[in-house]
Amino acid sequence: MYHCSQCGKSFTRQWHLHRHKLIHTGEKPYHCSLCEKSFTRQSGLRHHAYIHTGEKPYHCGQCGKSFTRQSHLKIHKRIHTGEKPYCCGQCGKSFTCQGHLKIHERIHTGEKPYHCGQCGKSFTCPSTLKIHERIHTGQKPYCCGQCGKSFTCQSNLKQHEHIHTGQKPYFCGQCGRSYTTSTSLRMHKCSNIKPSDFVS
């Protein structure tokens, strides 16, 4: 067995240990010739190259969706099987991948490690920070094909498209009325609150 002097992790082969040590040294010997990005493993560089070529060699047999990594396909397949193997020890909520569980756990811990360089606001995950930063840059990359209106995130575009399709997926449990956006439903619920609701 070959042992890492830094963290004590053991390996059956010497080259596995050598590859592992790159994590501690920060060395990234595999370089992308197109964008200067570097990687600790050759497999990382190979998967990265798909970004430039547009190649997605791993296909879902159920819906035909394609992926650059086999691990991403494996996680995706759980949408079809309903498998959620990663469970929160605090509330019991389950997730398809470990990354989603880790982000969820920050709700319980209050940890917000991703900070906006412009205003200092903090977030639980990098994707939420990225969407927030568009407030400062004015970037709205999601555009409606019907009317040309643009949005900072895909979920806002999806809700907007309900205006054109007439779809009203947000239902009020009290009166049965339906709305095109979650904001409209929330406003409806607020308008129906009576002063007596606050009196015990």
Automatic annotation (TrEMBL):
Keywords: Metal-binding, Nucleus, Repeat, Zinc, Zinc-finger. It comes from Ictalurus punctatus (Channel catfish). PANTHER family: TRANSCRIPTIONAL REPRESSOR PROTEIN YY, ZINC FINGER PROTEIN 143. Signal peptide: none annotated. The keyword DNA repair does not apply. The keyword Zinc applies. This is Gastrula zinc finger protein XlCGF49.1. GO terms for cellular component: chromatin; PcG protein complex; transcription regulator complex. Pfam families: zf-C2H2 (PF00096). It is found in: Nucleus. InterPro entries: Znf_C2H2_sf (IPR036236), Znf_C2H2_type (IPR013087). The gene is LOC108273847. Residues 2-29, 30-57, 58-85, 86-113, 114-141, 142-169, 170-189 form the C2H2-type domain. Its main location: nucleus. One of its GO terms (molecular function) is zinc ion binding.
